[in-house]
Amino acid sequence: MQRADILGSALDPLLPLQRWIQYTQGELQSLRADCRHQFEQITSTERIQQSQLDSLQSQIRELAQQQAQFSAEMTEIANTVTDLCNKIQETQTTLRGLVQEVLTHFSTQQQSALPATQLAITQPDVP
């Protein structure tokens, strides 16, 4: 027998093992490709989620700023309303005082005018 024949016949029992190794290597390459694809999908999903999270955080900051501005405006409005209520109360007090003065003045005038009117009625004009 020739040397190649001897070597070939010695390797014949290893052929199934060699085929299994080749099959396993093919499976490993396929698994690597699947893993790479899944990793890329996960990475893409994470980027999308991070972008959405950044957008939401930006919206939250904007809403917080608007809420703070709204709160400041409401405080200003409340202070203005309080000032107006105080001025209305002051005006009411002033008006009550003025009405009281007018009533007192007319009451005094009527009391002083009453005797003169009674006098004119009871005493006829003498020529």
Structural descriptors:
92% helix, mainly alpha, 127 residues
Account of the protein in words:
The chain contains two helices and no strands. The N and C termini lie far apart (183 Å). It has helices at 3-11, 15-122. It has a domain at 3-81.
Radius of gyration: 53 Å
Proportion of beta-strand residues: under 5%
- Count of strand segments: 0
Average pLDDT metric: 86
Q: Name the helix and strand elements from N-terminus to C-terminus, one letter apiece.
A: HH
Helix content: over 70%
- N- and C-termini, Cα separation: 183 Å
Query: Helical stretch count?
Result: 2
Q: What characteristic shape results from the CA principal axes?
A: rod-shaped
SS-derived structural category: mainly alpha
**Low-confidence segments:** none
- Biggest sheet, in brief? none
How would the blueprint of this fold be written?
Blueprint: H1 3-11, H2 15-122
Quick summary of this structure?
This protein has a domain at 3-81. It has 2 helices and no strands. The protein has helices at residues 3-11, 15-122.
